[in-house]
Amino acid sequence: DGKSVSLSPLESQPHSPRYTASSQRDRESLEVRMREVEEENRVLRKQLSLAQSRSPSHHRGNHSKTYSMEEGTGDSESLRAGIVAGNSSECGQQPAVEKCETIHVAIVCAGYNASRDVVTLVKSVLFHRRNPLHFHLIADAIAKQILATLFQTWMVPAVRIDFYDADELKSEVSWIPNKHYSGIYGLMKLVLTKTLPSNLERVIVLDTDITFATDIAELWAVFHKFKGQQVLGLVENQSDWYLGNLWKNHRPWPALGRGYNTGVILLLLDKLRKMKWEQMWRLTAERELMSMLSTSLADQDIFNAVIKQNPFLVYQLPCFWNVQLSDHTRSEQCYRDVSDLKVIHWNSPKKLRVKNKHVEFFRNLYLTFLEYDGNLLRRELFGCPSEADVNSENLQKQLSELDEDDLCYEFRRERFTVHRTHLYFLHYEYEPASDNTDVTLVAQLSMDRLQMLEAICKHWEGPISLALYLSDAEAQQFLRYAQGSEVLMSRHNVGYHIVYKEGQFYPVNLLRNVAMKHISTPYMFLSDIDFLPMYGLYEYLRKSVIQLDLANTKKALIVPAFETLRYRLSFPKSKAELLSMLDMGTLFTFRYHVWTKGHAPTNFAKWRTATTPYRVEWEADFEPYVVVRKDCPEYDRRFVGFGWNKVAHIMELDAQEYEFTVLPNAYMIHMPHAPSFDITKFRSNKQYRICLKTLKEEFQQDMSRHYGFAALKYLTAENNS
């Protein structure tokens, strides 16, 4: 009969001791029960909708009842009374969203930090969703580069992304002075009717500092409740800001009562366009700015001024659709229990440090999605056909061609694994050098090498590009580590690119390729995270680039590598000091004890007395650290973990006729560390070594096919070594 289905006796007694003191186990069982009831309700709604389609009058009656129950009045008692009704399952009252109906979401996003926030918001939406999603991202160039790569590598089924150039929209709103910390981008929601496709009828608009605690389809369904000229779905503002009594001479923009918060908006775009929304908000803004001079809360001030003049435009959403954790918030008055919440809005500049009696619960919910493994959200929506994705189809084709019974299957599979990648995880600034000689240090690392970052930044003042192999939780640990480091926070020319963990191998060459691909300089120094470059190496390399005409010649400049077995080292400040330490046994040539062939061709005996650069020839297993132009070939992805990952790259450089030139006054020193997990696997696992040998042979065969007769020397050299 369209009655609400009660979840459990607990729901009607949210303040009972049994509920408030429930254990983690009780909470988990309640969550399972809620999921089961949600599924039951979904089936009931479907059955009821079929029954109601045969009874039009009954259908209409239920709708009128719903409107009277949930339309806000601005009265907090009415709002609180509506919460239970709104959160219970309105089987016969709320039209269900079609199973495969696409939900459209618009987000304005600009800069590095906002891009991180968008990911957490999207995770919370994906976690609960059961429908295809279409995100419309109004982004600046930075956010577009970051998010386009992220979603392309995330490959979430039934999710479509479209970008709109925020910089092109600046002229539409730049005439409005805005004091809010969001800047000019905080005004762009005003022009969505003009920006989004003309055939898009409705959209949910979200701020980046939003966390969902329910299926976004529930919010999408609210569009069915709009009537008459209602075109904006908004939650009442939960602070006293628009009442104008927060401090002496506080003068807010005009608003209806407490006004409305624009962190969550339901926009009926087609109707807004017919109402000439563009003209409406512009005229209002022009009129109010004559006395107000600027906005304090960006687009929200203008939305509220328009609503003050035209209150019929608004459908007031229940406040659990936008629980605002701002300063001076009254949000606690709009819900009886945290289980009532659907959307949390961190709309204070203090973000997670805001004051609220339930802030611990909110913070934990937010941190759950912040650290949640995004790979687990690559779920198929069964019964909903996904749009054809070329990348996904190619990946499936490549994987299907592999033999799963092959003992080296996991190695081969890693070559085609698409790792979710978040470029420029932290703020990045780079000013190109006027002389076009700049060099970026390129390296890759995992969580256990974070301690090297500060030391490298002290030794190398130039730009750095780093690929970090981390889980979602580790990425947040890294963020806290970096934000707590004065050394790292003082450097803006370091690009941190997060490649998220997946699979059992460390994809060392993929990481190197990611770091190489995102440099902003004409040259790069291909290093490793465990090495400290000599003081002054950055400037020395820039001079060498000119001296050796790297711009017009195919050269790989070798920086000789040394190592110490001491964790505490008085770092040599000159070549003379290094040679003295070498003679005393404090330093050694790199891998002298275990893998002499890797660096023997550098000819350290000659380097001791060299005063000018000298050329050396390629030899088998040579793996020096080199400076090259940014257009040099990528590393071969088939090599993962330990073994042959650099050797193969140097071989490719030689095949492409690069000259290897040793720099006489450059050096780098490898610092000691515990053996990596991969080298341990190499040493202890016979199958690992067999597979590496197989991959080497296949690589050499590929080289022969690609470079012809000239590549035969690699096969010969390997057989003789």
UniProtKB/TrEMBL annotation:
Residues 24-43 have a biased composition (Basic and acidic residues). It catalyses: 3-O-{beta-D-GlcA-(1->[3)-alpha-D-Xyl-(1->3)-beta-D-GlcA-(1->](n)-4)-beta-D-Xyl-(1->4)-Rib-ol-P-Rib-ol-P-3-beta-D-GalNAc-(1->3)-beta-D-GlcNAc-(1->4)-O-6-P-alpha-D-Man}-L-Thr-[protein] + UDP-alpha-D-xylose = 3-O-{(1->[3)-alpha-D-Xyl-(1->3)-beta-D-GlcA-(1->](n+1)-4)-beta-D-Xyl-(1->4)-Rib-ol-P-Rib-ol-P-3-beta-D-GalNAc-(1->3)-beta-D-GlcNAc-(1->4)-O-6-P-alpha-D-Man}-L-Thr-[protein] + UDP + H(+); 3-O-{(1->[3)-alpha-D-Xyl-(1->3)-beta-D-GlcA-(1->](n)-4)-beta-D-Xyl-(1->4)-Rib-ol-P-Rib-ol-P-3-beta-D-GalNAc-(1->3)-beta-D-GlcNAc-(1->4)-O-6-P-alpha-D-Man}-L-Thr-[protein] + UDP-alpha-D-glucuronate = 3-O-{beta-D-GlcA-(1->[3)-alpha-D-Xyl-(1->3)-beta-D-GlcA-(1->](n)-4)-beta-D-Xyl-(1->4)-Rib-ol-P-Rib-ol-P-3-beta-D-GalNAc-(1->3)-beta-D-GlcNAc-(1->4)-O-6-P-alpha-D-Man}-L-Thr-[protein] + UDP + H(+); 3-O-[beta-D-GlcA-(1->3)-beta-D-Xyl-(1->4)-Rib-ol-P-Rib-ol-P-3-beta-D-GalNAc-(1->3)-beta-D-GlcNAc-(1->4)-(O-6-P-alpha-D-Man)]-Thr-[protein] + UDP-alpha-D-xylose = 3-O-[alpha-D-Xyl-(1->3)-beta-D-GlcA-(1->4)-beta-D-Xyl-(1->4)-Rib-ol-P-Rib-ol-P-3-beta-D-GalNAc-(1->3)-beta-D-GlcNAc-(1->4)-(O-6-P-alpha-D-Man)]-Thr-[protein] + UDP + H(+). Pathway: Protein modification; protein glycosylation. GO terms for cellular component: Golgi membrane. The keyword Cell cycle does not apply. Keywords: Glycoprotein, Glycosyltransferase, Golgi apparatus, Membrane, Multifunctional enzyme, Signal-anchor, Transferase, Transmembrane, Transmembrane helix. It is a single-pass type II membrane protein. It is found in: Golgi apparatus membrane. InterPro entries: Glyco_trans_8 (IPR002495), Nucleotide-diphossugar_trans (IPR029044), Xyl/GlcA_transferase (IPR051292). GO terms for molecular function: glucuronosyltransferase activity; xylosyltransferase activity. Residues 1-75 are annotated as: Disordered. Its main location: Golgi. Residues 1-23 have a biased composition (Polar residues). GO terms for biological process: protein O-linked glycosylation via mannose. In the N-terminal section; belongs to the glycosyltransferase 8 family. This is Glycosyltransferase-like LARGE1.
